[in-house]
Amino acid sequence: MVKCRTRELVTFQYFVEKHGVKSVRWVNEVKESGLSFDIIIEGENNSKDYIEVKATSNASKDWFVISIKEWHFAVEQGESFTIARVLVSNGNFARITTYRNPVKLCQSRHLQLAILSSK
């Protein structure tokens, strides 16, 4: 399993390359924050984008777990919330796919929600 800090660090670096180091903050850099996101991007006019990082090492695995707290935050934030899906292959980071406004993507049937029962 990929360590949480490593996948978040790689994703943080990805967004720094896109937006610049002054705009991107990794909220879990020192310790787990307990927030519903891992990275925040501060834009013009005090806008903020929130990034939740999800990782897998299995390219054929097309699902991931999102907590109720994260989903509620996604509903509240709308276009300001993105899930960054990190694919790790053979120990190397192969691809980052982003899903901006996953609630809207579910409503338009580009993503689907699933319910798992606890054992």
TrEMBL record:
Keywords from UniProt, A to Z, are: Kinase, Transferase
Which Pfam family, an example, fits this chain?
A: NOV_C
Top-level taxon of origin: Eukaryota
Q: Where is the Protein NO VEIN C-terminal domain?
A: 8-90
**UniProt-recorded Gene Ontology molecular function terms:** kinase activity
What are the GO cellular component annotations? nucleus
Asked if the keyword Cell inner membrane belongs to this entry, the reply reads no
The alphabetized list of GO BP terms reads: embryo development ending in seed dormancy; leaf vascular tissue pattern formation; root development
- Supply the PANTHER family for this chain: PROTEIN NO VEIN (PTHR32387:SF0), WU:FJ29H11 (PTHR32387)
> Would you tell me the protein name for this molecule?
Histidine kinase-like ATPase, C-terminal domain-containing protein
What taxonomic lineage is listed for the species of origin? Answer: Eukaryota, Viridiplantae, Streptophyta, Embryophyta, Tracheophyta
